[in-house]
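> forwarded from #structure-qc
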């Protein structure tokens, strides 16, 4: 089973407009409401692919109850710990070329609530082969929160994928996740050498695909063509592909090709956490993977 951790989940709202104009008034053509946050997007992609997945994290208030209800409606297995604060909302405004996001910071989590979640999480690890730890940390959590969860997972033999930024990424890398997946900007923000803690480093480069530095070699994986749409969930689809590949022991070139194709399929889907299966099937054979020497 793959366990996805979302410590700062959200009620995701996606507004679709013809074109986004700063300081202008826009008529929204469609509105989508989803249970969101990076880890839940990963879980949704895996669930849609028929993979056994369990979502966990922190939920609170009326917004948290709505997130839980949406997950239940979608048939996605979940086991969250309750907090007193109100789960945040996020808004993505998507036009035909790109998307602009507005992310609320999230609720303040107390030390007691964090300790309760760590115990809850530890109990879920017995059935986990891969754990993904994705997204921002809500206020109140220690900067090394992901590092703590990575070490607990490693102690049970579960493999870990970390997808976050800033101090959470810096501390998380020190715990030695199996894979870290920053984007190019997040990687550039790190002090030289800090990425060495991760066993493998997969960097997303948007339309230019992925670069992976692993114990088995360094590869570039590039999609056959550039696709326009909403890239908000592309990184989460990439993590989903990495998670199932780690679970199955897939060799890196094939794993990266799958991750690029699934990311591309997420770009043309209308909302984060969804993929267009036809695009995935068309793109997968054309992904070009080259090894650095």
């Amino acid at each position: 089973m793959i366990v996805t951790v979302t410590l700062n989940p959200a009620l995701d709202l996606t507004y679709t407009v013809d074109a986004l104009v700063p300081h202008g008034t826009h008529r929204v053509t469609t509105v989508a409401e989803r249970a969101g946050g990076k880890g839940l997007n990963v879980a949704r992609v895996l669930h849609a692919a028929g993979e056994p997945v369990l979502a966990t994290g922190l939920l609170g208030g009326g917004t948290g109850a709505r997130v839980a209800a949406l997950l239940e409606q979608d048939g996605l297995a979940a086991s969250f710990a309750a907090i007193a604060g109100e789960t945040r909302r996020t808004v993505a405004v998507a036009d035909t070329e790109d998307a602009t996001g507005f992310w609320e910071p999230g609720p303040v989590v107390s030390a007691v609530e964090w300790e309760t979640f760590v115990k809850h999480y530890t109990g879920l690890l017995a059935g986990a082969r891969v754990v993904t730890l994705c997204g921002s940390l809500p206020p109140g959590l220690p900067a090394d929160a992901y590092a703590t969860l990575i070490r607990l997972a490693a102690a049970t033999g579960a493999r870990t994928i970390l997808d976050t930024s800033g101090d959470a990424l810096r501390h998380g890398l020190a715990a030695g996740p199996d894979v870290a997946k920053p984007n190019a900007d997040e990687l550039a923000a790190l002090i030289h050498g800090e990425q060495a803690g991760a066993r493998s480093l997969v960097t997303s480069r948007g339309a230019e695909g992925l670069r992976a530095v692993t114990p088995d070699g360094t590869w570039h994986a590039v999609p056959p063509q550039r696709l326009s749409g909403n890239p908000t969930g592309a990184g989460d689809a990439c993590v989903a592909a990495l998670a199932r590949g780690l679970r199955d022991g897939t060799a890196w070139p094939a794993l990266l090709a799958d991750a690029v194709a699934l990311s591309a399929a997420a770009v043309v889907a209308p909302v984060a956490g969804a993929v267009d299966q036809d695009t995935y099937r068309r793109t997968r054979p054309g992904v070009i993977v080259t090894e650095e020497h």
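QC bot note: Residues 252-267 form the longest helix (16 residues). The chain has nine helices and 14 strands.
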